[in-house]
Amino acid sequence: MQESSMRVSAGGVKLPSGELASILNQCFQCGKCSAGCPVAPEMDLLPHQLVRLAVLGRAETIIASKSIWLCLTCHTCGARCPNGIDVPTLLDPIRHQMFQQSYGDTKSPVPMFHNVFMKNVRMFGRVHELSLIGMYKMKTGTYFDDMELGMQMFKKGKIHLIPHWAASRSEVKDLFKKSSMK
Ligand code: SF4
Ligand code: SF4
User: Fold this and answer.
1) pTM of the predicted model, to two decimals?
2) 75 C-alpha to center of ligand 1: Å?
3) What is the spatial distance between Cα 127 and Cα 122, in angstroms, rounded to a whole number?
4) Is 33 in the pocket of ligand 1 (CB under 6 A)?
């Protein structure tokens, strides 16, 4: 009983249960996920440590980490894991709950970018870089940061003025509805 109560954070954010928890329990800490993770050098907790903390029910430690916002959802860890453990399947639901409950560090630049990125994808069915940058700058007030980089990207045709809506935009919207993301 004590262990199940430890699986919920002070903000009510829940760690995985059921089938996903069983999969996480198979982790034998080989570290292959962390060895292949492209952002591991920037992380305060490595992917295999996040998995271990989840198994131990340490929701608060995961929520307080920088790593939860640094994971790129590239799935390299899942491809390398001998037990098929994919770290984003652990982190994504936690990030989602943190936004829904405004719990933890959801206002700093990385979570803010995550938030506006998802809104942008929901809006256009794909990313429209210019409006993504605009939304992010408005949220963070960093209007003049990276101007030079932005101009270079624009000159190279990486930033389009007019959005290109994805043909499957309504399907993407449905996916957001099903996941109850705002
Ligand atoms: S690769 Fe898989 S089994 Fe190995 S530490 Fe990472 S999650 Fe655990
Ligand atoms: S999905 Fe996240 S944790 Fe896994 S390898 Fe990519 S960045 Fe690292």
Assistant:
1) 0.79
2) 13
3) 9
4) yes
